[in-house]
RNA sequence: GCCGGGGUGGCGGAAUCGGCAGACGCAGCAGACUUAAAAUCUGCCGGGCCAAAAGCCCGUACGGGUUCAAGUCCCGUCCUCGGCACCA
């Protein structure tokens, strides 16, 4: 018997076996329960995968294989989110068509993913750039258009001057482009928008039914940003204009002492008095010139100018001056506020700066009213509201104002509609035709897909027009409605479009009649476990939820949430930093595999730390795991040919191991799961001299297979099995073996351990204490002392409290 | 600023129902095997007092508290990571 562990040989052999037997294919209809375990599909970059990417893929593969051993029919697919800027930019720089570069990258990614030994069913591979796929991406857009959820609007949007395209709000981080880091500017453009705000409440409420990490749900809740309040209208003095504001504190209406309009507010022009014109114009111009970043600096001093105009207070005979200030943002609420400096920090600062009135209207229940007070309390200086609590006063104030039609209760969201157009080449063409007679018309479903034309140049124009606009043969077409001459929409969809529904396509990837069949979608969906990076918490994960709710409303699916359970794995760092090619701190899995084998890499990815936490890559740790696999191989291989009958010590170890491991697997604690293997193998090493029984050898082999599938198969065949180890069942345990007859307990004096004692596991409290008090070790601690208290914690310890 | 997570040996991390802190791994030290090395195997491995062992004392960011008993619960402080950031 050759007891040398040669991972490369074993791994090559079993990969070949898996390819020929097709053991990883998902079968649509069996009598097993289904389980859909999904990875966030990657963007196939030119850099390939590093060990950081592999962590998530390894977790999902271990989980899929574990679930399979538990008897589930598994869907574990993989595909490519292959539209996007990097391929396009690379194409421009090197004169290679993005499709060619993308195909090459996909081939490399696929090779690497096959290397992991993951049980992907490659028959179901999905590629967002495949016209057979994006036909359906366009189909869903058409459906949205038909229902008024996709609309075109001229508005100032976020523009990345470096990527030369518009961006969604979600893609702007700290005023910078999420992708390239360039400072984002505003640009007034016609844009295709998706009305995600129509789903705001459902997107918010349904978070409650998801088994997702709390912090991800929290991020989505914050992003949607629901806040209840009121819209209140103020009449401009000496004019028919009204200024509408949104306020979450209508209770403080009597404390409003001035109004503020955002510099972009449409009323600024018309209400400004002649003598104030020059100042206001200058201020507005300056504000608009400032970048988002400058305007977002919080601790800067407040700036603003008086417009010369006043509004009438809706409830009392008082005039409030109207100011323009950039601390009010045009794209939240109505772009105008009523300022209550006594109870709002920002208004207070502004009022102090410009010497405006401050009228307190809320008094804290106990103690003095401070100049600025934002807490709860009782209303004062508020006529009929006086004496009410804040919550009650909010309701009363709205009632009071709405009686004269000056206000109504409303809900406001931070979430904006989704800017869905990109002025770039490498994306799904938006399937719309612009007709002078009929306006924008959707391309009929039977004419989809609108395919990307072959082009010579795909440089972005930077003018706000897509490169497609220059291709006459693409642009010029006829109107599907009236048949007259018309022009195609030349913007493309953002990269998120294809990933919003790809998980549905895996259920039925080759369907030419529909995005998926009812039968397939019914069987496999929703996704039971979704694994990926937390960076998508409010982008992909919010967009996908929106799409699924929309597709649900179309009546195509019964469920309205795509991902029942979400797991976000932590990053792998090297030298404390995220791995990236530009930082030069990338560990390439290909090198690791050549030295230690892929099973060792998989095992180490699981062992490196709690899967949800960030973890530092350490080659020494990998070596330790590789050593452990070698020990395991020698242990099982060395006893496979001549097992001995089982004995109690082996039964006990085995049942305890299975109980511990299963518990840790179920709670997704893979790092301690690996520890459980190590402890078990260490214990078995001591037992090995007396031989090992078949149950022990098989249990260890089956259990380790999800982690080290090649090793698992090899050992399983050494144990004489002809079929795959993944046809076996996850081992079970018997409670009776978890109990000890005798246990060692600690004897504590005043809470400190002073001795040990072996007692029967079911010993009574009285007996345990009596035995403890007689123990020789503790005599010196109790002699001549008064015993105040005695406790026995079952199976753990006796504590004797003494005095003196 | 607001919200949330987290501070444990030389290192990664165990232990979260309050019950013997440091599982497992790495690094280190000593030994076995070997002509030798690698590989493999065995033992030790938080700090202090002590020649050593036994033993005692200290020890889970810091300061208090509750409790027979606190890494774990409560109050306060510091640090760190993540999210949001003039959202009315």
Characterization of the model:
It is a single chain. The chain has 26 helices and 32 strands. It is flat. The chain has a 4-stranded parallel sheet, covered by helices on one side. A 4-stranded antiparallel sheet has the order 6-5-9-19. A 4-stranded mixed sheet has the order 13-14-12-15. Helix 20 (619-640) crosses helix 22, helix 21 (648-666) runs antiparallel to helix 22 (670-687) and helix 21 packs parallel to helix 23. It starts with 6 loop residues before the first helix and ends with a strand. Strand 24 (529-532), helix 17 (540-553) and strand 25 form a beta-alpha-beta unit. The structure holds one RNA strand of 88 nucleotides.
> Compute the gyration radius: what is it?
34 Å
Number of E-type strands: 32
Mean pLDDT: 91
Envelope shape: flat
Which CATH architecture of the domain at 227-412 is right?
A: Alpha-Beta Complex
- With strands numbered from the N-terminus, the spatial order across the biggest sheet is 2-1-24-25
Q: State the helicity in percent bands.
A: 25-40%
Give the uncertain stretches in residue-range form. Answer: none
Helix-strand category: alpha+beta
Largest sheet: 4 strands, parallel
List keywords for this structure.
single chain; 804 residues; alpha+beta; Isoleucyl-tRNA Synthetase, domain 2; Isoleucyl-tRNA Synthetase, Domain 1; 4-stranded antiparallel beta sheet; 32 strands; flat
Could you provide a short overview of the structure?
The protein is α+β, with helices and mostly antiparallel strands and 804 residues long.
Write the layout of secondary structure elements.
Blueprint: H1 7-21, E1 34-39, H2 51-69, E2 73-75, E3 79-80, H3 85-94, H4 98-116, E4 126-127, H5 131-146, E5 150-160, E6 165-167, E7 172-173, E8 176-177, E9 185-194, H6 200-205, H7 214-224, E10 227-235, E11 242-247, E12 258-261, H8 267-271, H9 277-289, H10 292-295, E13 305-312, E14 319-324, E15 336-339, H11 345-354, E16 362-363, E17 378-379, H12 390-402, E18 407-412, E19 418-419, E20 432-435, E21 439-442, H13 472-475, E22 476-478, E23 485-488, H14 496-499, H15 502-505, H16 518-524, E24 529-532, H17 540-553, E25 566-568, E26 572-574, E27 577-578, H18 589-596, H19 598-607, E28 615-616, H20 619-640, H21 648-666, H22 670-687, H23 694-704, H24 709-718, E29 742-749, E30 752-760, H25 765-774, H26 779-782, E31 786-793, E32 797-803
Parallel strand pairs: 1-2, 1-24, 3-4, 12-14, 24-25, 26-28, 29-32
Antiparallel strand pairs: 5-6, 5-9, 7-8, 9-19, 10-11, 10-18, 12-15, 13-14, 16-17, 20-21, 20-23, 22-23, 26-27, 29-30, 31-32
The protein binds one RNA strand of 88 nucleotides through helix 7, strand 11, strand 15, helix 11 and strand 28.
